[in-house]
Amino acid sequence: MAYSFDKKVGILGGGQLGKMLCLEAARLDIKLHILDKDDSFPAARLCHQFVAGDFTNYDDVLAFGLDMDVITIEIEKVNIEALKELERLGKKVYPQPGALEIIQDKGKQKDFYKERNIPTSPYRHFENKEAIEEAANNGELVFPFVQKACKDGYDGKGVQVIKNVDALSKLMDTPSICEDLVDIQKELAVIVARNPSDQMISYPVVEMEFHPTANLVEYLCCPANITGEVARDAQKLAEQVILEFDLYGILAVELFLTNSGDILVNEVAPRPHNSGHHTLDAAYTSQFEQHLRAILDLPLGNTANLTASVMVNLLGEESHTGPVMYEGLDQAMNVHGAHIMLYGKTETRPHRKMGHATLLAENVDIARENAQKLKHILNIKSKH
Ligand code: ADP
Question: Are 229 and 371 within one domain?
Fold first, then answer.
């Protein structure tokens, strides 16, 4: 079969994920068109065509999509109704809007798992703060629990642990789910890819370590330090999830390995994800190339690791807001095995994701040591 890459691929969102999709698309001469607010966004300088518009607006998404052959996303918070209309008009929209609509809402996502016997932590729905307070005060909801806003959370925003009665005052007043606090041994993630020809393949399991205060992934280690059996079970579960959603493209499945050895699905993202950034440098096929292969119904690439790796998010320093500068970048570039990716955001903010670095080494321990070194050397600050 001969492939031609003259299809127009449209992406809703022009952030760092869009930028990395553009970088990888260029290798195969796939032309990406990006819709986002303005051309200061990271992907704008690299894409084939940039279209200014609002990906949450029905008319903007519809007009953009009508001009494309295949439409995908790099952020979940997009206008679903327009995507549904584009699908109805015969456009290929991956992830499919029906599944994306469920994933956009943490409550609907949990219901989806529960209905299909996909293991996930117990939870309950609440309309607002008052309803949670009432359930907590009459003992129906047991401390500690995790409140998650159903909509619009990201990078730990919209998620909080409520430890006791005193903490009830910080409840978010919005439709939420409250989950049991899981006794987490490790946080794992599996990226799985599937194309419309029904080829499916998963990446090796990664292990995520979280920043203690920012609630963001700090180190991501691959391969995860788990048994072969846990790794196989985690991959099998991720494959079950993509099949249940019947999605094409890639799906990042975040998992909890509990202290009693169970594997629970926390949540999914139907797009390239932070937990797959290392694949740019440390795997045969990056998650970005894989996503493009999947949505264009091309053969999926080898997911094996080329080497062990640790990925570290490069976050804006606390108490620095404004035009960005990268203190120590030159020394950081000398750290052994470091592949640095700067997203090109002009403004830094506390804990904002400004870039990442993947450290390659013969094993995870060495890579982690070098990642710590790099993190110490490289500080992202504002110029004034
Ligand atoms: P986000 O969409 O913001 O990434 P998550 O649902 O992934 O939100 O939650 C962020 C983090 O909060 C998780 O990675 C985990 O560390 C912690 N967390 C979430 N749910 C639970 C839970 N039920 N029990 C314990 N910790 C949790």
Answer: yes
Q: Whose CA is nearest to atom 5 of ligand 1?
A: 156
Residues 219 and 316 placed together within one structural domain of the fold: yes
- d(Cα 248, Cα 291) in Å, to the nearest integer? 9
pLDDT at 218: 78
Total domains in the chain come to 3
Q: Are residues 173 and 221 in the same domain?
A: no
Residue 359 lies in a domain: yes
Residue 11: left if φ>0, alpha if ψ -120 to 50, beta else—which one?
A: beta
Q: For residue 354, give both structure tokens.
A: 């400004």
| 214 in contact with ligand 1, CB cutoff 6 A | no
Ligand 1 center to residue 234 CA distance, Å? 17
- Which residues have a Cβ under 8 Å from the Cβ of 235 and sit 6 or more positions away? 190, 192, 202, 205
Together in a domain, 50 and 171: no
In angstroms, the CA 309 to CA 371 distance is: 9
Atom of ligand 1 nearest to the CA of 254: 7
Strand 8-12 and strand 31-36: pairing?
parallel
Tell me the per-residue pLDDT of 150-183, one tens digit each, with 9 for 90 and over: 998 777 689 999 999 999 999 999 999 999 999 9
Q: Within a domain: residue 65?
A: yes
**Is 326 a pocket residue for ligand 1 (Cβ < 6 Å)?**
no
| Secondary structure in 3-state letters for 144-211 | CEEEEECCCCECCECEEEECCHHHHHHCCCCCEEEEECCCEEEEEEEEEEECCCCCEEECCCEEEEEC
Q: 208 and 76 in one domain? A: no
Percent of the chain with pLDDT over 90: 93
178 lines ligand 1 (CB under 6 A): no
Q: Does one domain contain both 367 and 294?
A: yes
Indicate the residue type of 377: I
Q: Tell me how far the alpha carbon of residue 251 lies from the centroid of ligand 1, in angstroms.
A: 17
218 lines ligand 1 (CB under 6 A): no
- What range does the domain containing 57 cover? 9-93
Which CATH number goes with the domain that contains 146? 3.30.1490.20
CB 13 within 8 A of CB 42: no
Q: Quick one: average pLDDT of 51-67?
A: 98
pTM, rounded to two decimals: 0.96
Helix axes 228-245, 97-104, angle to 10 degrees: 120
